[in-house]
Design goal:
Structural class: alpha/beta
Strand content: 15-25%
Radius of gyration: 17 Å
Shape: globular
Number of strands: 8
Helix content: 40-55%
Order of helices and strands: EHEHHEHEHEHHEHEHEHH
Largest sheet: 8 strands, parallel, barrel
């Protein structure tokens, strides 16, 4: 089967990220660079990973006025990332600007078009958190509302928790790719991820990609952990 595992390089330095990527590259599909690593290491960490032919998921969750987001997406496209994230809460115009920017910049720079992923509701949030920020407390309904808006804007992929995948698969075009964080094997200590499933459960629900961080990078042997998770999917 195709390997759906994207490893989150949630480590503080470029050196640690590159060492982890070197160890894991043969057994995973891509690496996610989030806010901590990008703030520490900058765009150069993307370039260094791409020099190894590793696929890169740039997870900075752009959320700003449409023009600013379009420029950020253009910069990410020129860095040759394969996936990037924006917040669907930025609205229809912002999402359209992001997708248009990705398409146009890829054409102009000779890059492949990155998959612009709309982030719906963060996996650390629940009904109480949504109420605190003035949204409807029903997480599923909020996710579905934002997902529908993202598809109207022309996005080709979404980020959602494992618990919303099955419902979204009933609502969205089949070609829409679903990227799923909040993956836990069941052996970890409780943390800030509240809406989780196991890797196999998430795939069976309809996920295309699994973003896995702590269960792999915090393991005694990250490569062995990644291999074990992949074996559990068959």
């Amino acid at each position: 089967m195709r390997n759906p595992i994207i490893v989150a390089l949630d480590v503080p330095t470029a050196e640690k990220a590159l060492a982890l990527a070197e160890q894991l590259a043969p057994v995973v599909s891509a690496f996610k660079i989030g806010s901590e690593l990008f703030t520490s290491a900058g765009p150069d960490i993307v370039r260094r990973l791409r020099e190894t032919d590793a696929a890169v998921f740039l997870d900075l969750k752009f959320h700003d006025i449409p023009n600013t987001v379009a420029k950020a997406v253009a910069a990410a496209t020129r860095l040759d990332v394969q996936m990037l994230t924006i917040h669907t809460g930025g609205g229809l115009e912002m999402m359209r600007a992001a997708e248009t920017s990705a398409q146009q910049t890829a054409l102009q720079s000779g890059r492949n078009v990155p998959l612009v992923l709309g982030v719906t509701v963060l996996t650390s949030m629940d009904g109480n958190t949504l109420t605190e920020v003035g949204c409807e407390a029903n997480v599923g309904k909020q996710v579905e509302r934002l997902a529908a808006l993202a598809i109207r804007a022309g996005l080709r992929g979404l980020v959602c928790s494992p618990l919303e995948i099955a419902a979204l698969r009933q609502l969205l075009p089949e070609k829409v790719e679903l990227v799923t964080p909040g993956i836990r094997t069941g052996s970890e200590k409780p943390d800030d991820q509240r809406r989780t499933l196991t890797p196999k459960e998430a795939l069976e629900a309809g996920a295309n990609w699994l973003v896995i961080g702590r269960p792999i990078y915090a393991a005694e042997s990250p490569r062995a952990a990644a291999e074990e998770i992949f074996a559990s999917l068959s």
